[in-house]
Write a structure and sequence with these properties.
10 helices, 6 strands, six-stranded parallel sheet, Alpha/beta knot, Helicase, Ruva Protein, domain 3, 2 domains, alpha/beta
Length: about 260
Amino acid sequence: MRRRRVATCAPHASAARPWQNESVRPRPGDVGPVIRFVLHRPRNSQNIGAAARALANTRAGSLWVVEPLGFDRAQAAKLAAGADHVLEGMRVVRTLEEAVEDCVDVVMTTGRRIPGAIDPRTAAQRLTTVSGDAALVFGDEVNGLTNCELRRANAIATIPTAQKSSLNLAQAVLVFGYELLLASGSAKMPDPPDRPLADEKLLAMLRKRAQEVLLRVGFLNPQQPDRALDELLQLPRRARATKREVEMLLAAIDQIARNIR
């Protein structure tokens, strides 16, 4: 987690190797929701191995990696130090959207000060009481997550430090993993919600259709639509909107689109 530059939200289209093993889906203390530790475009294979070791130490969640740059399995294994089962169960995907699309809560991490950011302990308490899959997202070792990516989080978390603000990627994974391990000791399985929450896949569909309609009616700036759109989409995220509520919004948008043709 490092201080980073402002970047655009252009998707990354290059391919990634699909190591997938659905049978390896560890949970903190074997209870609670499945928590995905998502490493977004890590640059160093050894950091992936060290992160795998941290997850083996804490059993805090499963390892997901978005488009690792020049991934070397042998280099990762050197730092995994016996956590080969975590590497074998690692999911590698092409985009961040794909990594979180089935999640009902997404916490993204940053090494800089963000108003309203929560600490690892608060993040752990939040993630262990979610009814459904959740994700904890870490940026790359140089730039971290962009402002645009952070705007699409349900919550932002940062690790308080005394002097230097950035931590090694695997160190950050271990801090959050440890807090999740502690939180799972007293956490109980949450009661199933009366109605299922909207997942990221459904929210992404809402974003896409809202953008199309709002551009047509002139509400969004065609040159820079993302910022206003992301702010609008924070409403259903903060409200923890249910699947039914988002489906109703989609239906309303479709009706509006038909009437303005």
